[in-house]
Amino acid sequence: MGEIGIGIIGTGFMGKSHAIAYRAAGGIFPLNNSPVLEMVADNNEAAGLAAHKQLGFRRVTTDWRALVNDPAVHIVSITTPNTLHKEMALAAIAAGKHVHCEKPIAPNASDAKDMLEAAEKAGVKTQVGFNYIKNPVLKLAREMIASGELGDIIGFRGIHAEDYMTDPEGAWSWRLDPKGGGGVIADLGSHIIGMARFMLGPITELFADLETVVPTRPIAPGSTERRAVEVDDIARLTLRFARGCRGSIEANWCATGRKMQLGFEISGTKGALVFSQERFNELRYYKVDGDPRHQGFTTIEAGPAHWPYGLFCVAPGHQIGFNDLKAIEVAEFLASIEGGEVSGPDFREAWEIQKVVDTAIKASLNRHWTSIS
Ligand SMILES: NC(=O)c1ccc[n+]([C@@H]2O[C@H](COP(=O)([O-])OP(=O)(O)OC[C@H]3O[C@@H](n4cnc5c(N)ncnc54)[C@H](O)[C@@H]3O)[C@@H](O)[C@H]2O)c1
Question: Which pLDDT does position 197 carry in this prediction?
């Protein structure tokens, strides 16, 4: 068994999650190579030093280029704000490294395409952080749809709603930087768009209404100076899928009281599925036939029957957690680097998702149905 060196850029919410996941994956999954936390980079020196010590990295730097070019780093994990993903990914690809990048992959589809083409030309493996679709019960849901258990699909109703931008006194941050692309349509919308595609395949056309709810925000926490918000706070989309069904998506970061309402309802002629990340160890299933007196949604509880839940816990109903989804994402990426199946979402799939995000922005501005080109 060899070692595979991991270099993580950024030590915030996702930097920590990636570090926990790479540490865990080697112990949980039957991999040939053991991931080691070789180096962490953060331009905030104190944050980098803290992560180095607490998360167990071998080395730390304030210079992400030093990490990318270090011979002991084989995978570069990018967990920085969206505007930085492209430059960092292209440098990592040029250095021959496999790249694990957070979502949304880039500020726009054109940048995403540059990244995808560079990776495919260099022959390196890529993975993008759409961790929620790594849920074992969502793999089951996808299989049930593919096998026809739900019959013909009638419609998709998806939502990703949280409330972290509801307070108008919440300060301006990189998530509102228009150079980073869309607002909530990119930040949360990319997750539910990716989930819709994972379940039902390509989206061909959409109508969208994007709204800015909070027009100005303090430029920094506690500041009286305010800056205009140029991106969307709520995005409402109507969709047409290539398979023929239609659907809707709401992405909303001003949804008072909601902390993690990422989910969907998929209706079919023979049944329906309901999922919410708020109770993500459960999948609710309605079957059309049978005794009408017994009809109603039943709850499928995650357990060892749903791979790879059993690698985390032998007992059903005991539940896995948010960082476990990241560990599954990491393990599947590591397995693909070892020659196994590429389950993605890779840069190509992230580009497809970004095209839907870009089209929603365009459709909202133009106020008409728009094809995803
Ligand atoms: N997959 C998910 O569920 C999920 C959840 C949250 C965020 N994200 C994505 O992860 C990315 C980061 O989000 P976050 O919430 O972790 O942000 P964050 O603000 O918590 O962390 C960003 C980190 O990047 C560092 N950084 C900034 N500029 C840098 C530079 N030039 N060199 C090195 N380090 C630099 C910051 O110091 C910080 O440590 C975004 O793309 C975001 O959309 C994904």
Answer: 98
CATH numbers and ranges of domains, the chain: 2-131 (3.40.50.720), 134-371 (3.30.360.10)
pLDDT-derived band at 347, boundaries 50, 70, 90 = very high
CB of 111 closer than 8 Å to CB of 180: no
Answer yes or no: is pLDDT of 105 > 70.
Answer: yes
pLDDT digits (tens, 9 = 90+) for 243-261: 999 999 999 999 999 999 9
- Which structure tokens are listed for 63? 């210079």
In 10 A of CB 143, how many CB atoms?
11
- C-alpha–C-alpha distance, residues 270 and 285, integer Å: 11
Q: 180 CB less than 6 Å from ligand 1?
A: no
Token pair belonging to 102:
């957070």
Quick one: which atom of ligand 1 is closest to the CA of 186? 43
322 lines ligand 1 (CB under 6 A): no
The reply to whether ligand 1 has any atom less than 6 angstroms from the CB of 131 is yes
Q: Summarize the confidence of residues 124-144 as an average pLDDT.
A: 98
**Nearest to residue 65, comparing CAs of 52, 49, 76, 56?**
76
Rg (Cα) of the chain, in Å, rounded?
Answer: 21
* Integer Cα distance of 40 and 76 in angstroms: 10
Beta strand extents in the chain (DSSP E only) = 2-9, 33-41, 59-61, 75-78, 98-101, 126-128, 153-161, 203-211, 216-218, 226-228, 234-241, 246-252, 261-268, 271-276, 282-287, 298-301, 370-371
13 lines ligand 1 (CB under 6 A): yes
> What mean pLDDT comes out for the span 75-88?
98
Average pLDDT for 58-83: 98
Atom number, ligand 1, closest to the C-alpha of residue 13 = 16
- Cα-to-centroid distance, 51 and ligand 1 (Å): 14
Burial 303-331 (b: 16+ CB within 10 A, else e): bbebebbebbeeeeeebbeeebbbbbbbb
Query: pTM (2 decimals)?
Result: 0.98
Helices (DSSP H) in 123-266: which residue ranges?
136-146, 184-187, 189-200
Contacts of residue 207, defined as CB under 8 A and 6 or more positions apart, other chains included, come to 237, 238, 363, 368, 369, 370
